[in-house]
Amino acid sequence: MGFFTTAAGNYDRHIGRYGPALAPELIAAAAIRPGDHVLDVGCGPGALTAALLRHGARVSAIDPSEPFATACAERNPDADVQVGAAEALPFAAATFDAALAQLVLNFMADAEAGVRELARVTKPGGTVAAAVWDYGDGMTILRTFWDAAKTIDPEAGDESQMRYCTPDTLGALWSAFDDARVTEAVVRASYDGFEDLWAPLESGVAPSGAFTVSVSPERRAQLKREFRSRLGVTDDPFELTARAWVVSGRRP
């Protein structure tokens, strides 16, 4: 996941700008209560961590990207933040009241192992929950980006091809939990204009940014024009919507 070793600010300006709006949706789905001890797995620069702290939770957080974990710790000094992977969490069994994973499940090297680890460190009866984008239809910026990318490279990778980004696959992954369910959450993000949206892609952040910097300057200019045209936006401020699937269940 080298495309997540960039500076945290690049992620903040790209998909990270949706994180603060999505975090309360995940917290609500997981029924987090003030005082709960919650683990934020794949915390990134800390959008969910911050929301959990505001909610009154006690928070531990972990991310495999050192720049992201450092940013999360600096922004959330009241949280215990570590560097590490979901598949090998450095916590004792039954430590947390809940374990949450926002926008990381489908980037885990082994999602099934990662979910088992989330369950292991959660107390019996505690909640394990995650949110992933609806890459196929509903996450406007990414769906439009990949549709534009395919006009210059029909073989361009597409995040909708990753596992665990549909209600059925998420439900199957959560089949061992009690009261498992998948709901949707639609959030919004604001942009000052198209250049505000485009600039972080040039940093190589996330799969979309990695694709952007991998093509020649001529094809990148073509991609930029096609992307802007498909979005139908100008240099004036605008908003885009993004749909996420939220899965939750209780550890038996």
Which descriptors apply to this entry?
252 residues; alpha/beta; Rossmann fold; transferase; SAM-dependent_MTases_sf
Describe it for me?
- One of its GO terms (biological process) is methylation.
- GO terms for molecular function: S-adenosylmethionine-dependent methyltransferase activity.
- Keywords: Methyltransferase, Transferase.
- This is Class I SAM-dependent methyltransferase.
- The chain has 252 residues and is of the alpha/beta class.
- It has one domain (2-250): Rossmann fold, CATH 3.40.50.150.
- Helices cover 37% and strands 24% of the residues.
- It has a 7-stranded mixed beta sheet.
- Strand 1 (37-41), helix 3 and strand 2 (58-63) form a beta-alpha-beta unit.
Task: Give the helices and strands as they follow along the chain.
Answer: HHEHEHEEHEHHEHHHE
> How many strands, what sense, and barrel or not for the largest sheet?
7 strands, mixed
Number of strands: 7
Termini separation comes to: 32 Å
Mean pLDDT: 96
Q: Judging from the principal axes of the Cα atoms, what is the shape? A: globular
Classification by helices and strands: alpha/beta
Strand order of the largest sheet: 3-2-1-4-5-7-6
Oligomer: single chain
CATH class: Alpha Beta
CATH architect. name = 3-Layer(aba) Sandwich
> Would you identify the CATH H-level superfamily?
Vaccinia Virus protein VP39
Helix content: 25-40%
As for the CATH topology, it is Rossmann fold
The value of Rg in angstroms is 18 Å
Low-pLDDT segments, ≥5 res:
none
